Amino acid sequence: MKNAGSAPFVDKRLNVSASDKDKIISAGIDWSQEQRSGSFFQQGADVLFSQSFTKEAEILSTDRALEKFPEVRKYKGRAFSLISKSIPGDTQGGYFIRVRKGRTVELPIQACLFIKSKKTRQRVHNIIIVEEGARVYIITGCASAESADKSFHLGLSEFFVEKGGYLNFTMIHSWKDDTVARPVSAAVLEEGASFVSNYICLKPVREIKMYPVAVIQGRGARASFNSLLMAHPGSVQDVGARVIFRRAGRAEIISRAVSLGGRIIARGHLKAEAEKVRAHLECRGLVLAKKGVIHAVPELETEFQNVDLSHEAAIGKISREEIEYLCSRGLSQQQAQSVIIRGFMDIEILSLPEIIKQQIRDLENTNFQGSL
Amino acid sequence: MLSIKNLSVKAGKNLILQNINLDIGKNEVMVLFGPNGSGKSTLLRSIMGFNGYQIVSGGIIFKGRPLKNLSVETRVKQGLGIMYQSPPKIRGVKLSQIADFLCPDKAKICKLAEILALTQHLSRDINVDFSGGEMKRAEIFQLILQNPDMLLLDEPESGVDLENISLMGGVLNGFLQQEGKSALIITHTGYILDYVPAEKGCIMLDGKIWCLGSPKEMFENIRSKGYEKCRECTFRG
């Protein structure tokens, strides 16, 4: 499937260098836009591009949406207030994406938050509304250019998935080894809604701290948080997810963490404030270098008897036997190691459509040299 | 093809193999018998160059060249191939990925997978939730795609029902009938002898080669008298 009406993402007038383009693509952005229903691009504080190629979705900057649609104002801050989270009000830009009741957006929508200049402090507020029975895939790529030394990114995101709606949200980070990133997000799920949140970070970063929360507000809603994390030497990734059940529902939090010398804290919290909750938390980690650290912090919490909450965590190194086995088929040590890590960073956990899956496979290929 | 001369091997601090001498020629199949813990798997693993086995004396010559200090993958490139007794499970790595790596011919992969009843398994993670028989068939499948000249088979029939042994035995026999293929096969049950053209057998006891002879005769003797009688036997190799 192809989006016939699209033009290349971010045209020449925007002065994007070849290396910036590579960086943006490494965050999952489809430059041709052929396989996207719409795009949003913000550089620093400036929204440079936002366009929807379909009538099914509205894509514009949050600031513009608040001006244009008065009803959006009641959404801003609502998800955070549900979890009593105070947030700064001085954000600039961010994207607003809304899919109207009953509509299905076939191809994913993409949004890119890019930092180009050094010491930039990018602070955005994103609002995503999936109305009753609507369906959409969103892919957000966050990246910093080589020139963006010592930058900071704050990304506030509020997700509203209304009755029976489906939102599949994938965030890919491609920062620099001195970038600090603070994504802060909250999702509100109404009756029968489904929310899939995927997070992928395979590139160096100085520090990422994020603990997105989904609140199950309506019966039978379902949340799924999946992450693939790779911590390079010097990186700290404190990444988790929390699901609060105010009604019966289901959730899973799954992470695969690989430390190449960096520190990963994989958190997870399932909190059942209602009966008939089923949820599972799973963390698997591989430590591949001496100074690497993986710390799994799973939490399960409830006051009710008829809930089913579980967790499993396993951290280890690559087994010598597995490497030897693949070498006995003719793979080199390096190939064997790459194949095992790629297998471990299993994109099948992400519940993605095939077009995004292939893209993530390609991203993984650039990260694992010598794989098959 | 494969010549083992005065080979002694340590695993950790323990001397496992002592002064082994064996010759397997081109187109020859040798069967290796021996009780559990006698050192049979250590011999195969030492030939492959696996970690944890230290050659303290002697050596292994393959196709006229010493294998000493060669990596596992180099030995594989020279034509050695091993079938594991209990292969590891590797999550996230599909059987088809390895098949594609071993053989560029997709049609050949599909055909062999069909013969070995593995078509459904190609898209599954290697050995994960495979039954005993499926694991062994997957081992034979990979080995044949790898197309080695010297097959090292570690108990190919253990944990496999008779129907699967017949299927695997038939495929193995077809492969070994080709020009230039040799094998060293460890067996406990002897079932594999019904399928492969083995003319030489040897018995290993306590890390030593005890005797050489006809595999079928040997197997009959082991079955009727047990390995303990071997120790009393004077026909030492």
Structural category of chain B is alpha/beta
Mean pLDDT of chain B: 91
CATH class of chain B: Alpha Beta
- Average pLDDT across residues of chain A? 92
The name of the CATH architecture of chain B is 3-Layer(aba) Sandwich
Description:
The complex is a heterodimer of chains A (372) and B (237). Chain A is mainly beta. Chain A folds into two domains: 12-318, no CATH class; 319-372, no CATH class. In chain A, 15% of the residues lie in helices and 44% in strands. Chain A is built from six helices and 21 strands. Chain A is globular, with a radius of gyration of 20 Å. The mean pLDDT of chain A is 92. Chain B has one domain: Rossmann fold. Chain B has seven helices and twelve strands. In chain B, the strands form three sheets. Chain B has a six-stranded mixed sheet with strand order 6-9-10-3-11-12, with helices on both faces.
Provide keyphrases for this structure.
heterodimer; A: 372 residues; mainly beta; 2 domains; ten-stranded mixed sheet; six-stranded parallel β-barrel; 6 helices; 15% helix; globular; B: 237 residues; alpha/beta; Rossmann fold; six-stranded mixed sheet; four-stranded antiparallel sheet; 30% strand
List the helices and strands and how they pair.
The complex is a heterodimer of chains A (372) and B (237).
Chain A: H1 18-25, E1 38-43, E2 46-52, E3 57-61, H2 62-68, H3 78-82, E4 95-99, E5 109-115, E6 121-130, E7 135-144, E8 152-161, E9 166-174, E10 180-189, E11 194-201, E12 207-210, E13 213-216, E14 221-231, E15 236-239, E16 242-245, E17 249-259, E18 263-272, E19 277-287, E20 293-302, E21 308-316, H4 320-327, H5 333-344, H6 354-367
Parallel strand pairs in A: 1-5, 4-6, 5-7, 6-8, 7-9, 8-10, 9-11, 10-12, 10-13, 11-14, 12-15, 13-16, 14-17, 15-18, 16-18, 17-19, 18-20, 19-21
Antiparallel strand pairs in A: 1-2, 3-4
Helix pairs in contact in A: 4-5
Chain B: E1 2-11, E2 14-24, E3 29-33, H1 40-48, E4 53-62, E5 65-66, H2 72-77, E6 80-83, E7 90-94, H3 95-102, H4 106-115, E8 125-126, H5 132-146, E9 150-154, H6 162-176, E10 182-186, E11 200-205, E12 208-213, H7 215-232
Parallel strand pairs in B: 3-10, 3-11, 6-9, 9-10
Antiparallel strand pairs in B: 1-2, 1-4, 4-5, 7-8, 11-12
